[in-house]
Amino acid sequence: MEDKIFEEFEVLKISREDGAYTLQEVCKPVIAEISLKIYINGMEMVSMLCLNRQQEELAVGFLYSEGVINSFDDIEEVCYNERAMAVMVRLKEGISVKRQESLRSITAGCGKCYTYINPLKRSQFKKAESAGRFSLEDIMGRMRDFAGQSELFREIGGVHSLLFYTPGYSVFSEDIGRHNCFDKVTGTLLKEGKMALAEDGIVFISGRVTSEIMTKVIRLGAPVIVSKSTPSTAAVKLANQYNITLLGYARSDTGYVYSGADRLMEATPCRAEKVAI
Fold first, then answer.
1. I need a surface site. Which of 17, 134, 138, 240 has the fewest CB within 10 A?
2. Which residues lie closer than 8 Å to 173 by C-beta, 6 or more apart?
3. 167 near 189, Cβ under 8 Å?
4. What is the C-alpha end-to-end distance of the chain, expressed in Å?
5. Which residues pair with 267 in a beta bridge?
6. The pTM is what?
7. Structural domains of the chain sorted by starting position, each given as residue range(s) with its CATH number in brackets
8. Which residues are identified as catalytic?
9. Quick one: angle between helices 55-65 and 178-191, nearest 10?
10. Cβ atoms within 10 A of the Cβ of 207, count?
11. Taking the mean position of all CA atoms in its chain, how far away is CA 183?
């Protein structure tokens, strides 16, 4: 089941030859998705559409992003049940999930579309305090490398990707949902005991940065996120509020800094008049 990442379909390929459109029968791989359930202490908490990879990491990262756990030590046991397509999580004594937090369905695209941080969980979301400086030259170079890193996207398409980077350690993930990519990376950091690296890490993401993605950045504690696409207004406001350096439309040698420019080295501010984009 682990290898069922795509299926092949007989389709008609549209082409244009000599001024006319033609339809040619071809075999086209299409990305597959599963409906993954997460059970907490025997109770179904959530059902999400995702790529059939890194199921345990996805579940662990999701529970951390949601504020259910604060470390991997809060989990007594976690395992993936392939037949049930479910991750079974048993929390340690004293760690619980409130009933109102359970039985939600998360789509592959826009997720829960949060535009705020739950006031009940606010204490778990802290401003990025990293005093580190980051080379803009290095960021843009790594973004160029990251843009072509997903073999799955090149061969099949239909997936997002995310890279967590620090010197000497990095985690890369792919999924049909941007938020799933993020939770898989967070879950990997938790399982490998590398969460302390987050405070000096950079997150590179292939899709747009919504408020939901930004809340995950804040919860993780990473001070910098770089996207080849756009942020939403809510994401920009959260980035400013929580001291996150946010870069958007980072492609080739261009892009925009929406917040936290003081962390960037080798960048000379231009004093010219503002230009409407």
1. 17
2. 54, 57, 161, 162, 181, 182, 184, 185, 188
3. no
4. 47
5. none
6. 0.87
7. 34-109 (3.10.20.10), 134-265 (3.40.140.10)
8. 110
9. 90
10. 18
11. 6
Burial of 74 (0-12, 13-18, 19+ CB in 10 A): middle
Asked if 99 and 45 touch (Cβ cutoff 8 Å), the reply is no
The answer to whether residues 255 and 247 touch, using CB atoms and an 8 Å cutoff, is yes
CB atoms within 10 A of CB 50: 25
In this predicted model, what pLDDT tens digit does every residue of 186-237 receive, in sequence order? Answer: 999 999 999 999 999 999 999 999 999 999 999 999 999 999 999 999 999 9
SS3 per residue for the chain: CCCCCEEEEEEEEEEEECCEEEEEEEEEEEECCEEEEEEECCEEEEEEEECCCCHHHHHHHHHHHCCCCCCHHHEEEEEEECCCCEEEEEECCCCCCCHHHCCEEECCCCCCCCCCCCHHHHHHCCCCCCCCCEEHHHHHHHHHHHHCCCHHHHHCCCCEEEEEEECCEEEEEEECCHHHHHHHHHHHHHHCCCHHHHHHCEEEECCCECHHHHHHHHHHCCCEEEECCCECHHHHHHHHHCCCEEEEEEECCEEEEEECHHHEECCCCCCCCCCCC
Question: Could you report the per-residue pLDDT of 238-275, keeping only the tens digit for each?
Answer: 999 999 999 999 998 999 999 999 999 976 666 555 65
C-alpha angle 115/59/75, rounded to 5°?
A: 115
**Hey, what are 13's tokens?**
């390929």
Look at the alpha carbons of 12, 14, 15, 21 in this order and tell me if their dihedral is positive or negative: positive
Token duo for residue 172: 């890369």
CB 231 within 8 A of CB 209: yes
